[in-house]
Amino acid sequence: MFHDIAVASKMTDHWNSSDVTSTTDAAPSSEGVVDDVMQFTLAVLGSVTVVMNVFVLAVVWRFGWMRNNANRIIASMAVTDLVAGASALLSGVIKWGGVVTGGPSFCFVYNALDICMAFASLQHVLAVNVERYVAIVQPLRYKKVFQRRRVYAYLAAIWIWSSVLGVVFVT
After folding, report:
1. Which of 78, 88, 164, 90 is nearest to 121 (CA)?
2. Side-chain half-sphere CA neighbours of 145 within 13 A
3. What is the pLDDT of residues 24-71, one digit of tens each?
4. Terminal-residue alpha carbon distance, the chain
5. Which site from 30, 82, 114, 164 is most exposed, i.e. has the minimal number of CB atoms within 10 Å?
């Protein structure tokens, strides 16, 4: 997460500099090769993340018996990971290709989205843990505590809170 903020800062500096071609004309160094390998790996992992989370969402959507409260939380978490994976894929392709587009506003949105997805992912893990805890320790109260409407309210709160934190931490 903090690495992405530093990279976005470099992207902004690169965008604002008057000599944009200086970074592409230099001879490749060992640091440049390592950066290329890292960005390629980031793009590959982003692609795998996107594909796997699409599979999770397709299974939950396709099979009606999979639409229970636990899987609703997991599907919401899959959306979070899908967006994070797409962001990593985009980041890897942009940085690996050596093209910086969008300027400071792109960096702001990218960093806010990255932080938002990190917080949302952590909160989804917490929600799954709380849901499983209540299901195991207090099975008689489970249906009251985790009604469908409440689960949707919990998920909405997770997304709203993560979005607010994403914007606040970037500004």
Report:
1. 78
2. 15
3. 555 556 666 777 787 788 778 888 889 999 999 999 888 888 888 889
4. 15
5. 30
The pLDDT tens digits of the residues spanning 116-169 come to 999 999 999 999 999 999 999 999 999 898 899 999 999 999 999 999 999 898
Provide the residue type at 148 as one letter. Answer: R
Give the dihedral of Cα atoms 92, 2, 123, 58; nearest 10 deg. 0
d(CA 49, CA 112): 20
Two tokens at 27?
């001879």
Q: Residue 61, Cβ neighbours under 10 Å: how many?
A: 11
83 close to 113: Cβ distance less than 8 angstroms: yes
The number of beta carbons lying within 10 Å of the beta carbon of residue 89 is 19
6 burial via Cβ count (<10 Å: 0-12, 13-18, 19+)? exposed
Q: Which residue has the tokens 């499983």?
A: 132
* Interaxial angle between packed helices 69-97 and 30-62, expressed in degrees from 0 to 180 and rounded to the nearest 10: 150
Helix, strand, coil shares of the chain, percent, nearest 5, are 85, 0, 15
